[in-house]
């Protein structure tokens, strides 16, 4: 459990530091706090900030302005790290800025291909003089059909995702390296941080299962509950309720994150309240800690902890 004063001091440090340098700065300033906890506090802050700032930049005019700013920097032969510096200027995480610039780059290149395809469409006989010209013409026109229209939003997103996963596939070598630097320096946004978070989340779910098994507690996991027809399910549904610190528990939710006020209230609204309504009282475990003020505003039947308490009272049928 973290005091509000310490939490606020960490947020103050984040606000005064370049986003892509925050993790290192936090770990040096708060050596007694685990790097995972600091990274989770930082990640939560960035997610909230991105939600607030994303709409401001996610429009065609603003994306084009960012792209032109990037191009001017390239033409001026500025040193490597152009997108990182733009990220610092607008306080948007580097990979998200890279996504904006990739979107403009892809649209620009596709517009050129559209123009070429339309010119070829107006002269379909050009360049086909051999006996098999009809089949060759059909093949070329089929290949060009995608270039005769603007990209759909899904096609654009797929292209951006492909370039982020494999920056070496970006045709522009300068842009490829700039985007690569963003993926290396951004610990909180993009395909690699997302994969790491999923892995850590699974690791803590396995840890929770092992702890319950060691105590001989019977339970059903999320996959088993879904097979029974439940749509919204906690990670663990106890087959027989237990008592923790005198509180009856029927389900457990594992969160491999830090629980700040906004994050917790979001989970209460989107997940935990429905678990309580369906299964009864339960426990949410924030394995990376939580801010102390959450305890004062706990919702009815939803209890908070940062570990699975060792003192568990199991139901004894002989006492009934």
UniProtKB/TrEMBL annotation:
- Recite the UniProt keywords alphabetically: Cytoplasm, Nucleus
InterPro entries named among the record's database cross-references: CDIN1
Q: Which domain of life is it from?
A: Eukaryota
Extract the Pfam families matched here.
Answer: TPD
A GO CC term assigned to this protein in UniProt: cytoplasm
Q: Where in the cell is it found?
A: Cytoplasm; Nucleus
Q: What is this protein called?
A: CDAN1-interacting nuclease 1
């Amino acid at each position: 459990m973290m005091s509000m004063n310490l939490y606020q001091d960490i947020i103050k440090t984040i606000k005064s530091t370049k986003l892509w340098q925050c993790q290192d700065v936090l770990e040096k300033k708060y050596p007694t706090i685990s790097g995972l906890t600091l990274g989770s506090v930082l990640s939560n802050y960035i997610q909230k900030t991105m939600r607030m700032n994303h709409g401001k930049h996610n429009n065609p005019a603003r994306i084009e302005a960012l792209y032109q700013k990037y191009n001017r920097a390239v033409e001026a032969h500025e040193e490597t790290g152009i997108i990182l510096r733009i990220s610092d200027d607008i306080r948007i995480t580097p990979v998200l800025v890279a996504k904006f610039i990739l979107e403009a780059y892809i649209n620009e290149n596709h517009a050129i291909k559209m123009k070429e395809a339309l010119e070829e469409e107006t002269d379909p006989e050009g360049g086909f003089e051999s006996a098999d010209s009809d089949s060759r013409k059909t093949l070329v026109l089929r290949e060009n059909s995608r270039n005769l229209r603007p990209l759909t939003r899904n096609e654009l997103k797929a292209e951006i995702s492909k370039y982020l996963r494999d920056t070496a596939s970006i045709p522009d070598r300068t842009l490829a390296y700039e985007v690569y630097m963003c993926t290396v320096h951004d610990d909180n946004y993009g395909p690699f941080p997302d994969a790491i978070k999923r892995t850590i989340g699974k690791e803590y779910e396995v840890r929770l299962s092992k702890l319950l098994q060691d105590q001989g507690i019977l339970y059903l996991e999320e996959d088993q509950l879904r097979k029974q027809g439940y749509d919204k399910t906690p990670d663990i549904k106890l087959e027989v309720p237990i008592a923790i610190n005198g509180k009856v528990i029927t389900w457990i939710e594992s969160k491999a994150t830090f629980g700040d006020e906004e994050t917790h209230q979001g989970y209460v609204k989107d997940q935990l309240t429905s678990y309580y309504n369906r299964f009864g009282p339960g426990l949410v475990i924030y394995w990376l800690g939580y801010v102390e003020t959450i305890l004062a505003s706990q919702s009815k039947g939803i209890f908070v902890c940062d570990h699975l308490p060792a003192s568990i009272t199991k139901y004894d049928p002989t006492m009934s």
